[in-house]
From TrEMBL:
<feature type="domain" description="Helicase ATP-binding">
    <location>
        <begin position="204"/>
        <end position="383"/>
    </location>
</feature>
<dbReference type="Pfam" id="PF00176">
    <property type="entry name" value="SNF2-rel_dom"/>
</dbReference>
<keyword id="KW-0067">ATP-binding</keyword>
<dbReference type="GO" id="GO:0016787">
    <property type="term" value="F:hydrolase activity"/>
</dbReference>
<feature type="domain" description="Helicase C-terminal">
    <location>
        <begin position="534"/>
        <end position="694"/>
    </location>
</feature>
<dbReference type="InterPro" id="IPR000330">
    <property type="entry name" value="SNF2_N"/>
</dbReference>
<keyword id="KW-0347">Helicase</keyword>
<keyword id="KW-0378">Hydrolase</keyword>
<protein>
    <submittedName>
        <fullName>Uncharacterized protein</fullName>
    </submittedName>
</protein>
<keyword id="KW-0547">Nucleotide-binding</keyword>
<dbReference type="InterPro" id="IPR014001">
    <property type="entry name" value="Helicase_ATP-bd"/>
</dbReference>
<dbReference type="GO" id="GO:0004386">
    <property type="term" value="F:helicase activity"/>
</dbReference>
<dbReference type="InterPro" id="IPR044567">
    <property type="entry name" value="CLSY/DRD1"/>
</dbReference>
<dbReference type="InterPro" id="IPR049730">
    <property type="entry name" value="SNF2/RAD54-like_C"/>
</dbReference>
<dbReference type="GO" id="GO:0080188">
    <property type="term" value="P:gene silencing by siRNA-directed DNA methylation"/>
</dbReference>
<dbReference type="Pfam" id="PF00271">
    <property type="entry name" value="Helicase_C"/>
</dbReference>
<dbReference type="GO" id="GO:0005634">
    <property type="term" value="C:nucleus"/>
</dbReference>
């Protein structure tokens, strides 16, 4: 044993690896054949142990105790405890039953490398305590390097110095294979899927040849926290790095709020908006401040695109553009599905950023078509279809979808989509799915959202409503409109027939026209208006709040005015609204009041304005007033209520006007969901029935509100999703 701080200490080395060959090699490294001083009967016990998932996937885990004159050491937890720990990473070991008596005969038998493990042992009180703490490894202080090429050999000895309780650039809990660290405060909170995402970031961004990656994690699963933790570890190791976060402007406040919650160092956060930098000269000053110190810059997609695509002959304009293209060391794209369309200015602008370290975050990666995902992959990994590592899989996939030679991203993706959607040969679909996953496994991490299974539950229904006579009389007029106008006019018509006659006018004239209409209408003429009012009344009686989403302002304004007239409610007290025109502060205030006030009854949300960063867990009933052609937009909206923090079961009603063009839109949207589920969620245990709508009887829904006569009389068909 070694003398440490005046105490006799023993060292236990536990080698962790998923790879049996690695584990065997590690054991040989410490065997008596290769190191005569490391023997079982002298000083060191080497154990090839089970894989510690929650302990940051560490392949070398050092445990040591510093108690005096103890002849027996608890080495491994009992098998039962280990099995419980595998299924529940938060489980703490209470005792350990397997013991090995190990005696140290004299001082000095350990070589210097092993002696390094025995320093600072007075801070580890017991083996079971050490199992439940994140590993802390250290390196000797050295000059910081930004080439991001420092990697440890899988079984090399990590030098250990006395553990510091204070965060520094060199004292961190480390992720797998690198010295990028998770702060101990974050390590206590991080979930397994977040740890997997963190490690994907490390493998791609901190490598000899760094590249980008995609984190496609379900809404509400903690993507922002994961990235904040990574950014802080990245900056702690590489303080000269300059991260740039591009995101929808509306969720900037949410990001800053999360930084305030999780930030463990004082990292300045810059943006153009909070300082009123609305011209290039002011923006250049912000960019210079960001570039001058360890800090983070936030920009909205539109603002970023305007600056980068500005080609005015001006030194200030050129300086702003060059700084955004050349300074970022790390580019993070929240709601990263935004730049998914080829030849758009936003995608072209982001492709010009010189750093290879690009990260896409998305709760709904698949939006409309396979080609959009391929475009995003090409953004984070330029030329990914033609990379050497991709060639075999690409050729195999092309042979399965009947493409004879290398084609463009568009041609490949269209053939893949057609196979997944229309091919009657399910075996061929399976082959394509497997190849898609193989092609993207190193750069794309998908998380369905099992964390949401911990919530009280979700019942999601497509509710087909029978239109009223007056609505049916007007329905034939929709065939004369193009697709977009048909959708807008139809959305209003399905709420109430009177709305179909309101012309396309500005907001002031629209509101005035609605004010006039609500004074004299018969509410029962509109089936969706009637359904909305009935569900709201029933939910209110049950002490539940309601969210109502639409892609158009007219239906929401109409229902808002109707509630003021019918119930005497007030906007800002019982009624709230979040739209694209709602400012950041007003949005935050509406969320807080709706979630926290007992007076709040209903919140109307523009479906595109209520994406990530919006938490409306005060509501447990959700009505989607119209069908959006992009199903991911609807999923995002539902995720405002069905997310961590929700205390009740959530019921969702996606309203569809039966026997109308909206039925076709619903069918098309569901086919898009089918592709997304096949690509990311299909497994051998699934059947084709798992991805179909299932018609249900109202009495089988266990939804007391749907079962009432006033509701069920309008329902033509009901499908559980």
């Amino acid at each position: 044993m070694a003398k440490t701080h005046g105490k006799e200490c023993k060292t236990t080395l536990i080698l962790i690896s998923d790879d049996e060959d690695q584990k065997a090699a590690g054991y040989r490294q410490f065997s008596t054949e290769n190191n005569s001083e490391l023997t079982w009967d002298k000083n060191t016990l080497v154990v090839c142990a089970f894989h510690l998932q929650f302990a940051l996937n560490i392949y070398l885990y050092t445990l040591a105790t510093g108690n005096v004159k103890i002849e027996e050491r608890h080495v491994l937890p009992s098998l039962m405890e280990r099995e419980q720990w595998k299924s529940d990473p938060t489980f703490h070991f209470n005792n350990a039953t397997i013991t090995f008596p190990i005696q140290r005969k004299r001082k000095g038998e350990l070589d210097s490398a092993v002696d390094d493990f025995s320093t600072g042992l007075d801070e580890t009180e017991s083996l079971s305590e050490a199992y439940n703490k994140p590993m802390v490894t250290h390196k000797k202080p050295e000059k910081q390097r930004d080439d991001l090429k420092d990697h440890r050999d899988a079984f090399s000895l990590v030098e250990r110095t006395k553990v510091s309780r204070k965060r520094t650039n060199t004292h961190e809990a480390c992720s797998n294979d690198t010295d990028i660290a998770i702060h101990p405060r974050h390590a206590k909170e991080i979930r397994p899927h977040q740890l997997e995402g963190f490690n994907l970031l490390v493998r791609n961004l901190v490598a000899d040849k760094p590249g980008g990656c995609i984190l496609a994690h379900a809404p509400g699963s903690g993507k922002t926290f994961m990235l904040i933790s990574f950014i802080q570890g990245f900056l702690a190791r590489y303080p000269s790095a300059r991260p740039l976060v591009v995101l929808p402007k509306g969720i900037l406040g949410s990001w800053k709020g999360e930084f305030e919650r999780w930030q463990v160092e004082d990292i300045p956060l810059y943006d153009f908006y909070s300082v009123g930098a609305d011209n290039r000269a002011g923006q250049l000053e912000v960019l210079k401040s960001w570039n001058s110190k360890t800090s983070i810059l936030f920009l909205g997609y539109k603002q970023f695109t305007r600056v980068v695509s500005d080609d005015k002959a001006s030194d200030v304009v050129a300086a702003c553009r060059d700084m955004l293209l050349k300074v970022p060391t790390l580019l993070i794209l929240d709601e990263g599905h935004t730049p998914r369309t080829k030849d758009t200015e936003v995608l072209k602008s982001l492709c010009r950023v010189q750093t290879p370290r690009k990260v896409v975050l998305s709760g709904t990666l698949f939006q409309n078509h396979v080609v959009e995902v391929f475009n995003i992959l090409d953004l984070v990994r330029p030329g990914f279809l033609t990379m050497d590592s991709s060639q075999h899989t690409v050729r195999l996939m092309m042979s399965q979808v009947s493409i004879s030679s290398t084609k463009s991203i568009t041609e490949v993706s269209e053939s893949v989509e057609n196979t997944l959607l229309n091919d009657d040969n399910f075996t061929r679909k399976v082959h394509v799915i497997r190849n898609l996953r193989e092609l993207t496994k190193d750069v794309l991490h998908y998380y369905k959202g099992e964390i949401l299974d911990e919530l009280p539950g979700l019942s999601d229904f497509s509710v087909f409503l029978e239109l009223g006579p007056k609505q049916k009389d007007i329905l034939h007029k929709l065939k004369d409109y193009d697709m977009f106008k048909r959708s807008a006019v139809g959305s209003a018509l399905y709420i109430h027939p009177c709305l179909s006659e309101i012309p396309e006018v500005n907001a002031v004239d629209r509101d005035a026209a609605v004010d006039t209409l609500v004074k004299s209408i018969n509410v029962s003429d509109g089936v969706k208006a009637r359904f909305f009012l009935n569900i709201l009344s029933l939910a209110n009686s049950a002490g539940e709040k309601l969210l109502a989403f639409s892609q158009y302002m007219l239906p929401m304004k109409f229902l808002e005015k109707l509630l003021v007239k019918e119930k005497g409610w007030h906007v800002g007290k019982e009624i709230f609204m979040i739209s694209g025109e709602t400012g950041t502060k007003e949005r935050s205030l509406a969320m807080d009041r709706f979630n926290g006030s007992a007076d709040a009854k209903v919140l109307f949300g523009s479906i595109k304005a209520c994406g990530e960063g919006i938490s409306l867990v005060g509501a447990s009933r959700v009505i989607v007033l119209d069908v959006h052609l992009n199903p991911s937009v609807t999923r995002q909206a539902i995720g405002r209520a069905f997310r961590p923090g929700q205390q009740k079961k959530v019921f969702v009603y996606r309203l569809v006007a039966a026997d109308s063009p909206e039925e076709k839109t619903h069918e098309t949207a569901f086919k898009k969901e089918f592709i997304q589920k096949l690509w990311f969620e299909w497994s051998e245990s699934c059947s084709t029935q798992d991805f179909k709508l299932n018609q249900v009887n109202i009495d089988e829904t266990e939804d007391q509100l749907l079962g009432t006569n006033v509701i069920r009389q309008d329902i033509k068909a009901l499908y559980r999703r």
